[in-house]
Amino acid sequence: MFDSPSLQSPPKHQLGGIAAGSAGTGVLAALLLAAAPFVPATEAGVTGAILVGLALGWGILAVLSVRFTDQPQIWAFAPALFLGMGGFLLLAFGSPAHEALAWVWPPALLILALWMIVKASQRLRSRGARLLLYPGIAVLVLASLGAGHETVRGAVDAQARPVQGELIDVGGHRLYLNCTGAGSPTVVLEPGAGLSSSDLRWMTPVVARNTRVCVYDRAGRGWSDSATTPQDGGQVVADLHTLLQRGKVPGPYVLAGHSFGGPYALTFAARYPEEVAGLVLVDSTAPAAGRELEPAQHAAADPDDTINRISALVAGAARLGLGRLVGVAEPSHLRSTVEEYLHAGASVRKAAALETFTNRPLAVLTAGTGTEPGWAASQEALASLSTNSLHRVIDGATHASLVTDREDAAATARGILDVVSAVRTGSPMDSGRSAGSER
Questions:
Q1: Which tens digit of pLDDT belongs to each residue from 170-186?
Q2: Residues 118-155, buried b or exposed e (16+ Cβ, 10 A)?
Q3: pTM of the full structure
């Protein structure tokens, strides 16, 4: 006799298709939750949302395989529970949970992933499902190893102290400051985008032989702590000003900014004009005038939220050791660099606030090699900010070598000392603003 339709077993589906759908759903859910406005735009919040989304994918695999196939994968409930609990803890408790899980999560995840490999090999008869799930489990293994390595390395680095200089609290985080030499005015060096104080090692001692010179690391770089506030040009400058005040480094200052450090120097001069006696712009990015968003537009576009979410994703990836693949060892340095580029538009607009440097000494130093069309004109425009300026082209130097090459960095240091001398003596800089050369 034929079975009654109501008593027939439900049709069995291919496990491979269910595995593919579950994996795709998990990834899609992770991306949507990470971008959801109700999820905090922090590293803990975005990471937690991603874990919850991935947990959903594993949970769907377990439920659908039990319901619709003859290969029930009940073991998939374990990663769903593990990832889901970790995600909810991060969403509920934020950074404190993140720091605590940094020690517990990697070994626990490694044990879970190895257990998953055993269970999958026992229960998965579908070749297609194995091809889909084994790479996902391998990613969990690599994530556990990378996260464990970064946690241990970070703890070791946190115990270290700089041989020179000091760490100074500027309000919620500490910045590294190192001043050498003696004399006035004090030269404050601003490294370019993604760089730190150590990248100015050729320039600093040359300047220090003639006057006091200070180098520092922006938030998240070198010895400095990461910051919880968005680090656009305005915040970078505010932190630098606080650092100099609390570090007992009185003005007047000669600010020397290389590359994207130039807009920071310009913004500082615009905000604290009475404290800046001279400027040196070393192949500097030019400021850009632009209309700021109206409050209603800002709320609708919410660029800071997008930037914060991208930065949080980068920071989370860096905690897994992925930053080393692009040559950046420290997770905080990678996040700081990415955030700096994301805020670049706002930073160069803030730099445009300095419409004139009146008659104070200004030196514009330009690389003689590898410049793009229009770069020379932008450098001339920078030199026109002051009636007491010079524009010097360093023959043979490239944008990077002005600070990284010993000989070219010495030429950069001489330009800085020219401004220092003009400040001290009140003598004019090169009277013309036409480009000179040095080599």
A1: 998 999 999 999 999 99
A2: ebbeebbebeebbebbeebbeebbebbbbbbebbeeee
A3: 0.75
